[in-house]
Amino acid sequence: MSTGQGQNGHGHGADRAAWAAHAEDALGQAGHRAGGARRAVVELLAAEDCCLTAQEIHDRLRADGRRAGLASVYRALEVLTALRLVHRLDLGGASARYEAADPSGEHHHHVVCRECGRVTPFADDELEEALGAVAERLSHQVDEHDILLRGRCADCRE
Amino acid sequence: MSTGQGQNGHGHGADRAAWAAHAEDALGQAGHRAGGARRAVVELLAAEDCCLTAQEIHDRLRADGRRAGLASVYRALEVLTALRLVHRLDLGGASARYEAADPSGEHHHHVVCRECGRVTPFADDELEEALGAVAERLSHQVDEHDILLRGRCADCRE
DNA sequence: GTTCCTGCAAAATTTTTGCATCAGT
DNA sequence: ACTGATGCAAAAATTTTGCAGGAAC
After folding, report:
1. pLDDT in tens, A122-133
2. Rounded Cα gap, residues B96 and B86, in angstroms
3. CB count, 10 Å around CB of B19?
């Protein structure tokens, strides 16, 4: 088959723990201090399979007992995104979504159900190849891409 | 070559005029009346090559002497998007962008310069093929897709 | 001890909605 | 005439910023 992750975007637990460590490390290298709110965001994103909104992150942290101000969540995401440790996506909803960005470059894309709004990750090597070829022929120095598919999911099609 | 539109997304003038007529028609069929603001939005989008924000549409209409309230622009875009006459995209900026959607399904995608923010359209048939293949193997009934590339444009790379 | 981080509240933006009025059919 | 479309202003929702206090180094 053509994908390294199958149809869902689950990373192995080990990868995610590694990502968290890598992120903490990169933050340190970039001259940032280790505060509680940012660490909480990193740990939450490490534990999460797919993208979350800032509000969702905030809510889950509260639910987990760690509380972090929503502004701090936004600030943490801003720094993490700038360092390319986190990927920010706009799936057309009201809020932006964020997910851990694997330093190896391995990544997935998303299908959004037009009816229920559910977001499902997928990966496909041939698609990546085609994207690479396109990037070649453009005059831009392309270093990132987002693919977003829309349609009705199996459940909503019944 | 692999694209029907080359590297830029210019439609021929005739296509665009046809789109405007088609849109007016579809609006009528959907039971909408022909008001001034909505017609102005349709005509502006028909004349435009690539995506615009609601605010940009509003500003250009003012500049052209046709004035339409910003709320009416949003409402027009909402209706047009629901009828699939206009495509709404989130390129990561603060505002959503809108562009005419060709009923033939012919469409283009976008590269955004990380530095200057300029949006450039492109099209690629092999990419479309790969996307079609992905859509096949997913359990979703995919009916739309957006591709967004990011990187530095030739000008910003100098 | 200095400087960054955090949280709260206020502000800035973008988009939506209420309502009175105008225009299209 | 009836009903949808429009414009303005107000509201809602999301994200950013100012500032005082606390934490990290």
Report:
1. 999 999 999 999
2. 12
3. 21
The radius of gyration computed from the CA coordinates of chain B, to the nearest angstrom, equals 16
Question: A82 CA to C5 C1', in Å?
Answer: 17
Q: Are the Cβ atoms of B152 and A141 closer than 8 angstroms?
A: yes
Give the closest nucleotide to B37 (alpha carbon vs C1'): D6
Strands B109-113 and B141-152: parallel
Rounded Cα distance between A119 and A45, Å, is 16
| C3 nearest neighbour residue (CA to C1') | A33
Closest residue, by C-alpha, to the C1' of C7: A69
Q: Say how far apart CA A23 and CA A18 lie, in whole Å.
A: 8
Gap between the Cα atoms of A131 and B130, Å rounded: 9
> For residue B69, how many other CB atoms are within 10 A of its CB?
11
pLDDT for A158 equals 81
User: CB of A67 under 7 A from strand C?
Assistant: yes
Instruction: Give the separation between CA B155 and CA B158, rounded to whole angstroms.
Output: 6
- Using DSSP's 3-state secondary structure scheme, residue B15 falls into helix
B57 is near strand D: CB distance < 7 Å: no
Q: Hey, which residues 65-94 in chain A have their CB within 8 Å of chain B?
A: 88, 90-92
Task: Tell the residue number behind the tokens 């740990």, with chain if given.
Answer: A43
pTM beyond 0.85, yes or no: yes
Query: What's the rounded Cα separation, in Å, for the pair B13 and A16?
Result: 51
Query: A118 at the B interface (CB within 8 A)?
Result: no
Average pLDDT over residues B112-137: 95
Token look-up 């997910």 returns: A99
